[in-house]
């Protein structure tokens, strides 16, 4: 059993070994798997935009699904004090990479976390109980606590789960689902 820090290091290195083509193929598999989750009757979908140079899952196929299903797409923007703002994505939204290489909205309508129905969450890996290892900044834990209780939390991972994460804390927010290229996990 490993700590979050150990798992973050291990899975960051594993992710670096993927080629860009492999990331694209795995991202499409994850996007297709997401179609099997019973969430598509909901309206407001929060989705992160990928840092492709960091070999993150490419969320553009999943974003295309959200838009094709005529759902509202909401994207995050990092603010000071390790907080996120949530902006409605429209045809007029201007995106620009921030200092971390994350595409962020430069304009748009700010959306309250209280109306978000589904959140797709970036992570390195998760365990069999729905605990997750993210980047360690706590952005999503703070954000998810502001969402309504029935907001569906979906982790997206290139990797199958580990059995257990050693250092889970009380304020860590668990996933409802995790989607990998091969599987869907429900918690």
Write the layout of secondary structure elements.
Layout: H1 4-16, H2 20-34, E1 44-46, H3 60-68, E2 72-79, E3 83-88, E4 95-97, E5 103-105, E6 118-122, E7 125-126, E8 132-133, H4 139-146, E9 152-156, E10 177-179, E11 184-186
Parallel strand pairs: 1-2, 1-6, 6-9, 9-10
Antiparallel strand pairs: 2-3, 4-5, 7-8, 10-11
What are the segments in which pLDDT stays under 50 over at least 5 consecutive residues?
Answer: none
Q: Name the overall outline.
A: globular
Helix and strand run: HHEHEEEEEEEHEEE
Strand % is 15-25%
What class, by secondary structure content?
A: alpha/beta
Mean pLDDT: 94
Largest sheet, described in full? 7 strands, mixed
Note the total helix count.
4
Counting DSSP E segments of at least 2 residues, the number of strands comes to 11
Whole-angstrom Rg: 15 Å
Helix content: 10-25%
If strands are numbered along the chain, what order do they take across the biggest sheet? 3-2-1-6-9-10-11
Distance N to C terminus? 20 Å
Which characteristics define this entry?
4 helices; alpha/beta; 187 residues; single chain; two-stranded antiparallel ribbon; globular; 7-stranded mixed β-sheet
Question: TL;DR of this structure?
Answer:
The chain contains four helices and eleven strands. The chain has helices at 4-16, 20-34, 60-68, 139-146, and strands at 44-46, 72-79, 83-88, 95-97, 103-105, 118-122, 125-126, 132-133, 152-156, 177-179, 184-186.
């Amino acid at each position: 059993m490993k700590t979050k820090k150990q798992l973050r290091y291990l899975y960051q290195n594993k992710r670096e070994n993927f080629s860009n083509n492999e990331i694209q193929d795995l991202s499409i598999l994850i996007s297709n798997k997401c179609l099997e989750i019973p969430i598509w009757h909901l309206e407001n979908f929060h989705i992160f935009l990928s840092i492709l140079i960091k070999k993150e899952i490419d969320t553009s196929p999943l974003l295309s699904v959200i838009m094709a299903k005529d759902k509202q797409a909401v994207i995050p923007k990092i603010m000071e004090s390790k907080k996120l703002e949530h902006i409605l994505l429209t045809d007029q939204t201007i995106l620009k990479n921030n200092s971390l290489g994350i595409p962020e909205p430069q304009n748009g309508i700010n959306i309250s976390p209280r109306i978000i129905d589904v959140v797709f969450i970036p992570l390195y890996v998760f365990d069999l109980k729905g605990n997750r290892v993210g980047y360690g900044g706590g952005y999503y834990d703070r954000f998810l606590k502001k969402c309504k209780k029935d907001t569906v939390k979906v982790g997206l991972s290139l990797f199958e789960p580990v059995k257990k994460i050693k250092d889970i804390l009380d304020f860590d927010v668990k996933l409802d689902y995790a989607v990998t290229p091969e599987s869907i996990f429900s918690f």
